[in-house]
Design goal:
The protein is an alpha+beta fold. Helix content is about 25%, strand content about 30%. It contains eight helices and 18 strands.
């Protein structure tokens, strides 16, 4: 196993592989400040193309991309005509308004998989031309990855009913692929417009649905991030992205907990896991949910102090990783959300000190689900593993 981190022309790149199986690559980038949106998109296209060339990646290895926009209502249709979008349009694509804090108007996260002995080939598209409610399934020898992105509902009057409709669409899509939310979905991202007012409706609808399908505190939930984010349509109060894995067994899905540091989310009425470890024969994926400055009773720590909140957030992530013989060095990327973008200069020294050098990290504007939380971090880690489950391919 080898994990190498590199920075090429301002883009951060990480990858993981084992002698037995495939290489997984993660790329984060945000455009330079002072550029028009079109120029920012062109710059990202040049940087991304350079990374692909240097690391022998191409459209056949592409899986998933998320774009982070400063003004999605005005720039979404512009983005669809750019070269950077054409470079990634062969995979699943997600769009959210969360302003990058590195200075530019556009940021991105990209995921690739490649192998000398086969690959995850995209099995089908649906509604590809609209780039909304995307369903892209990539099938390997042992598993399939179903990326469902951009699920929205602009007709329902409130966030509770929109959540019901969005999860209903996800469940229908999973049935079409011979999967279920209960058995196969391991990660969701829920972007909430005006989170201070619309989060509660989403939480209620999700909790009621999960109770019906036996996703409970006694079984397990799904790793998730619920954060401020906007879709292009201002009537859409929520946007749902999800990752589901076909041919996975329940025994491969392990809760990540750190009870001395963080309470169960059910303590304060929400229904997601702090993290999930997915065990494959040659590796484990560690999906770290959106994590904030919280204690083991569910209380906000260090209210009003973004620096101390960030320190506690990183402590909590380390606590989640530790029982699984993992550290921050095993993380492949981080996304950092700040309620107040003016706080970003205050925390850069902490990030430099606490986050291992070179690990891709993208900072964006995004209010957390409680107003008192000023910062939240999510990410994905990968560690080598050796067990009787099929290898990741």
């Amino acid at each position: 196993m080898q994990t190498i981190y590199d920075t090429i022309q301002g883009i951060k790149y990480s990858y993981f592989f084992t002698a037995k199986g495939v290489q997984e690559s993660f790329i984060t980038a945000d455009a330079s400040s002072g550029l028009s949106f079109e120029a920012a998109a062109d710059e990202l296209a040049d940087k991304y193309s350079a990374v692909l060339l240097e690391n022998a990646l191409d459209e056949t290895t592409l899986q998933f991309t998320r774009f982070y926009l400063s003004d999605i209502t005005n720039d979404y249709n512009v983005l669809l005509k750019t070269r950077i979008f054409q470079l990634v349009s062969g995979g699943a694509v997600s769009f959210v308004q969360q302003r990058p804090l590195g200075g530019g108007q556009l940021g991105m996260l990209v995921y690739h998989i490649k192998s000398e002995c086969g690959s995850f080939r995209q099995a089908f598209y649906r509604h590809r031309s609209a780039y909304g409610s995307q369903k892209v399934c990539a099938t390997g020898k042992n598993y399939s990855l179903l990326w469902t992105t951009g699920f929205t509902d602009s007709a329902a009057p409130d966030s509770e009913i929109q959540t019901q409709n969005i999860f209903s669409e996800l469940s229908s899509t999973l049935r079409d692929c011979r999967m279920t939310l209960r058995r196969n979905t391991v990660r969701t991202w829920i972007y909430v417009r005006d989170i201070d007012n619309n989060y509660a409706g989403m939480v209620k609808a999700r909790r009621e649905l999960f109770d019906k399908i036996d996703l409970t505190s006694k079984t397990r939930y799904i790793a998730s991030t619920g954060i401020e984010g906007k879709a292009a349509d201002p009537h859409c109060l929520l946007t749902l992205d999800a990752l589901s894995i076909g041919n996975i067994n329940e025994e491969q899905i392990i809760r990540m907990e750190a009870e001395e540091n963080l309470s169960s989310t059910s303590v304060y009425g929400v229904t997601f896991e702090r993290g999930l470890r997915i065990r494959f024969g040659d590796r484990s994926h560690l999906y770290i949910s959106g994590t904030a400055s919280i204690d083991n009773k569910g209380n906000i720590l260090h209210e009003g102090d973004v620096c101390r909140q960030l320190e506690r957030t990183i402590d909590n992530i380390e606590a989640l990783l530790s029982p699984h013989n993992a550290t921050l060095n095993d993380m492949q990327y981080f996304i950092l959300y700040l309620r107040n973008p003016l706080h970003f200069p205050l925390i850069t020294d902490i990030l430099s000190r606490r986050i291992p050098e070179g690990i891709p990290l993208l900072a964006v504007e995004g209010a957390v689900c409680r107003p008192g939380w000023l910062v939240e971090i999510e990410g994905v880690g990968i560690t080598p593993d050796n067990n009787d489950f099929p290898e990741f391919l």
